[in-house]
Write a structure and sequence with these properties.
With 296 residues, the chain is mostly beta strands. The protein has a domain of 198 residues: Glycosyl hydrolase domain, family 43 (Tachylectin-2, Chain A), CATH 2.115.10.20. It contains no helices and 20 strands.
Amino acid sequence: MTDWTKLGPVIKPDPDLSWCRTHAMLPTPERVGGSLVRIWWGGRNDANQSHIGWSLIDLERPDRVLETVLEPELTPGRLGTFDDNGVLPSCVIRTGSETRLYYIGFKPGGTTRMDLFGGLAIKPDGAAGFERWSEAPIIERCKVNPFINTAPWVVKTPFGWRMYYVAGVEWVHKDLPRYNIQIASSKDGLDWQRKGRVAIDFEPGENALARPYVWHDGENWRMWFAAKGEAYRQKQAVSANGLNWTRIDPPGLEPGTGEDSEMIEYGVVLIHNGQRIVFYNGNDYGKGGVLAAIEE
């Protein structure tokens, strides 16, 4: 089992900024160049609505923030749209001459507590900001996914675009959804086809599998994801083809005594100088900020 040196909260909410008075949730990396990485995250305003911003970090000193954007890059959508009560980052990817921000849109539910779906905003090089590709979700309800469809993590492969996403399978009651991790495919990363293919399914005692983070290590595909029974814990899996996944031993990032004393989730792994650096959330889904840990 890997040992980790925890750095504690690195990115913190800022009560002086209206869009992120509380929480720094769902760290999402974008490599900028060299050792620099932009960590996208969601902060909440006084109405508990999430907005998307970023902080710049040098992996040479991952315990320090060099810069945090003062205004959010993406705000909740128009009234009545799927994301009118909050947005959270899920995946940032460069393609051609544009940056794509795949994100989570939040809306309070009716008979259930909430609705969560995946959206897409695009920023062409030189543009002032991101624009929604569509005001509708890119993964909406469909025949094979009639419940929650959210948290898209997108990769480009020799066979086209692939998405790993969180798919609801049922609501146990109005406050308890169950969701696993499924796979979608696309020719362009815009229009997606889903057949209900499951990447990671529940093990005994689990009811929620969240935030797939997928990369290729040169030999195999790797996935970190969070699994919840009573509380979230970080898990991992491996695949030769990115389609058939096998769970392996957990990465060893366990609860501590600080902001991650109760839960650990939403981890993303970056490799710098041969060493793994993890950014993740702890208690209360990021209320204490984005935490970091370094592989010993």
